[in-house]
Structure to design on (654 residues):
């Protein structure tokens, strides 16, 4: 065997072994976030278990600062009172301090103890000491779990003769700027650390949908059964909906909002049926704007798409369309606001003489 | 006549018998002979034009994967799409394994290398030099077969691993989640190379135009037999090999659609056992043929 041959074989074996080693490390321990390419979705997906039924994300900072939100504030009832009160209590300004939120929900596992439930992970700027002080003042218990503060609600006093059961909720600061809020088991699961190869990132079906929507301001993907079970739809409705396996919904906020809805069905016939159903609903929606001609002109360009088992629907809601549907906010007593003149009293017509 | 020896004539010492003090070494055994032939053939095979062609074929998907990754890194490429639908890296890698490696590369490598093991030596008229050696002829075939296996495995398998590292993470895919399937893919590629190589080594030792026969088998017979219902598909290597694939079979055309329609897969243990036994039988038959056949070199 010549030296050249020997070098080739050794080099080839090294490449092979190195590649397998990387794969092995990834399988057992997970790979760092950006080591082998841009990972879809936020980094917190590594804390989401691979069997999560629904995963959602919202870029709170972007949404709060968007023109859409300013438009929606035109609707009656939307005030800053709640936000201000929340800020005074917790020190958190929802508009500025929360960057984004990731949430997941696990399918109900009836009959199993320690079911994880769901979790909300918020990334932003939080004053931990202030929040812990607030929690203590409300009677919550601030404990420790694997070196992290774990805040659990107070045990409600029970009726005489009944045992007081603590609510299965908890809040924890996983790291600076990351708060977890959810069921006690889920929060502890998050504190336990990244799930590595068994996190949501190892769920290929889920990540395929996440990668499609990860550039949006807000999105949710998951099993359709999970949300239909939560929605408690009547049997007459659910029996008529084609069998949907996965769904994905996303919205990208700019001046208005661009919405994309995607569903994967069990077979192509179901997908065809679902497309027909959606077309029907779109037609109904267009008919409902019949009394607002100006809305018809601004009606969003609805695109139906998808091939095979996939059905997708996308449309954009422009800020002008929101203006058409937004009720004008009343501001009585405001300086310079002209008062609405009273309608003249209707003159009573004399009764027609009967001839 | 005088019997006296003249003084001028110096009696020369008797000539020593050749190798008188040194025993004649035994001819190497079959295994040693095969390893010697393997060592000789490995270098020839690895640096031949066929391997350059092989390198180009396995390098193309790697270059493509690298290009996609660079574009993704620069933010130019969006999601990976196949047939207009976005796919994850996992699905893309699975499709490449099916279409490129399993259905094209492995059979073609078996044909081009396997048939050439003996046939090339005959065509080049160099087989005589191998057959005059004090080794059993079958060891020549076995040694060359081993060289083929090492050459193809050391070129193809690392390329698959590199392709996996490039393509799998695309579209949110996970390196860890796909790792068990990668191991399965590597195993069945190696098994496929051995099985096809053994079959076409037999074809090369037996038939006059082995390359044509091999291509007809791979492109014609196997495709037809797999598409038809019944037992004919059991007379192919693809039937057993494709049953071991962990990825979903892409429906890329009428042939695949027909095959999926009549698909009945044997169990993995049956497939593996059949492939190993078949490889051994083909190689044994090829060795037997090489041992007994008289190769007539064209003048």
């Amino acid at each position: 065997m010549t030296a050249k041959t020997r070098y080739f074989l050794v080099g080839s074996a090294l490449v092979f072994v190195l590649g397998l080693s990387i794969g092995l490390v990834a399988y057992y321990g997970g790979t760092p976030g950006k080591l082998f390419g841009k990972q879809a979705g936020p980094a917190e997906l590594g804390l989401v278990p691979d069997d999560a039924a629904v995963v959602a994300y919202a870029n709170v900072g972007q949404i709060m600062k968007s023109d859409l939100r300013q438009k929606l504030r035109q609707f009656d009832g939307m005030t800053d009172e709640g936000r201000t009160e929340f800020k005074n209590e917790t020190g958190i300004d929802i508009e500025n301090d929360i960057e984004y939120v990731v949430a997941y929900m696990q399918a109900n596992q009836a009959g199993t103890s320690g079911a994880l439930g769901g979790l909300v992970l918020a990334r932003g700027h939080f004053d931990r000491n202030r929040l812990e002080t607030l929690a203590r003042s409300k009677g919550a218990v601030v404990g420790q779990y694997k070196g992290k503060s774990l805040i659990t609600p107070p045990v409600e006093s029970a009726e005489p003769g009944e045992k007081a059961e603590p609510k299965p909720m908890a809040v924890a600061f996983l790291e600076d700027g990351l708060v977890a809020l959810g069921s006690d088991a889920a929060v502890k699961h998050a504190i336990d650390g990244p799930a590595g190869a068994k996190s949501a990132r190892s769920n290929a079906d889920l990540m395929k949908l996440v990668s499609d929507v990860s550039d949006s301001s807000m999105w949710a993907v998951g099993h359709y059964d999970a949300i239909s079970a939560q929605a408690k739809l009547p049997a007459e409705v659910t029996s008529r909906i084609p069998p949907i396996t996965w769904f994905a919904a996303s919205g990208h906020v700019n001046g208005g909002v661009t919405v994309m809805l995607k569903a994967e069905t069990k077979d192509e016939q179901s997908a065809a049926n679902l497309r027909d159903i959606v077309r029907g609903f779109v037609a109904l929606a267009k008919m409902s704007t019949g009394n607002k001609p100006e809305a018809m002109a601004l009606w969003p360009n609805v695109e139906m798409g998808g091939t095979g088992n996939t059905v997708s629907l996308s449309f954009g809601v422009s800020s002008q369309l929101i203006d058409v549907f937004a009720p004008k906010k009343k501001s009585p007593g405001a300086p310079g606001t002209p008062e609405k003149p009273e309608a003249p009293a209707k003159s009573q017509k004399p009764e027609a003489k009967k001839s | 006549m005088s019997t006296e020896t003249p003084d001028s004539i110096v009696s020369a010492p008797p000539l020593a018998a050749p190798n008188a003090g040194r025993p004649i070494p035994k001819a190497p055994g079959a295994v040693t002979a095969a390893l010697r032939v393997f060592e000789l053939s490995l270098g020839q095979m690895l640096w031949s034009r066929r391997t350059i062609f092989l390198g180009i074929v396995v390098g193309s998907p790697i270059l493509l994967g690298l290009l996609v990754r660079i574009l993704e890194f620069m933010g130019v490429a969006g999601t990976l799409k196949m047939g207009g639908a976005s796919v994850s890296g996992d699905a893309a890698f699975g499709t490449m394994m099916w279409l490129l490696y399993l259905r094209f590369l492995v059979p073609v490598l078996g044909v081009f290398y396997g048939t050439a093991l003996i046939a090339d030596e005959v065509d080049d008229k160099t087989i005589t030099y191998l057959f005059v050696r004090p080794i059993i002829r079958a060891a020549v075939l076995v040694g060359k077969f081993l060289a083929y296996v090492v050459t193809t495995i050391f070129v193809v398998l690392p390329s698959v691993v590199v392709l996996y590292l490039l393509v799998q993470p695309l579209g949110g895919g996970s390196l860890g989640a796909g790792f068990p399937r990668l191991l399965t893919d590597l195993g069945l590629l190696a098994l496929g190379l051995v099985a096809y190589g053994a079959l076409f080594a037999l074809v090369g030792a037996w038939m006059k135009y082995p390359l044509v026969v091999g291509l007809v088998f791979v492109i014609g017979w196997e495709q037809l037999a797999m598409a038809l219902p019944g037992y004919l598909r059991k007379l192919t290597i693809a039937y057993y090999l494709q049953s071991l694939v962990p990825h979903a079979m892409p429906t890329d055309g009428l042939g695949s659609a027909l095959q999926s329609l009549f698909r009945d897969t044997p169990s993995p243990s049956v497939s593996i056992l059949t492939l190993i036994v078949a490889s051994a039988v083909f190689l044994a038959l090829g060795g037997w043929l090489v041992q007994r056949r008289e190769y007539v070199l064209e003048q």
Summary: Chain A has a mean pLDDT of 74. The first helix of chain A runs from residue 3 to 29. Chain A has one domain: 36-155+166-325.
